[in-house]
Known about the structure:
By secondary structure, the chain is mainly beta. 0% of the residues lie in helices and 47% in strands.
Amino acid sequence: MTSKLKVNLINDSGDNNLITSDGSGSVTLGTAFPAVGKIGQVLSTTKTDTFSMTSTTFTDITGLSLSITPSSTSSKILVLSTINYNGLGGERCYFRLVGGTNNLSIGDAAGSRPRVTTGGVQTQSTYSSNESSIMHLDSPSTTSAITYKIQMRGLSTDAAIFVNRTKEDRDTANYEPRLTSSITVMEVLP
Length: 190
């Protein structure tokens, strides 16, 4: 036996509209769900080339930046990024998310410890890669263009760190892959 419930309005205990249907399959969500389905714009770029550095200073990773212009000062910007990297075994690699001139989603200050968004220690294999991911919801409070970018730094100037390639980078059919990294920004409307 099949049961069916037909309604055109669902209210909460305070008689506030939660869900309204016009009978044609179109549904309107009430104010209890203000952000559902309200993505204004999506921009994304994928970095397929390689990048390397030997520095303890945060440096922009070329090709991992995007500029977006919010349509409202109340909009939020969701930033998603994935970075594939490699270096000498035991080498540290740190990443930082920057929005405009602000460092975003970094750890609290604690002595001389580096304040980063994500990062890690390279595995002992220089033939494989590591991956770091970033997810941050920003509230820039502007309708001017804002650029989001990924920066990286290493532990010392003696050992290089690489994006989208392995340290050895040998030309073999089964090892030493070339990889991709990406950044995506989405405007979440108010």
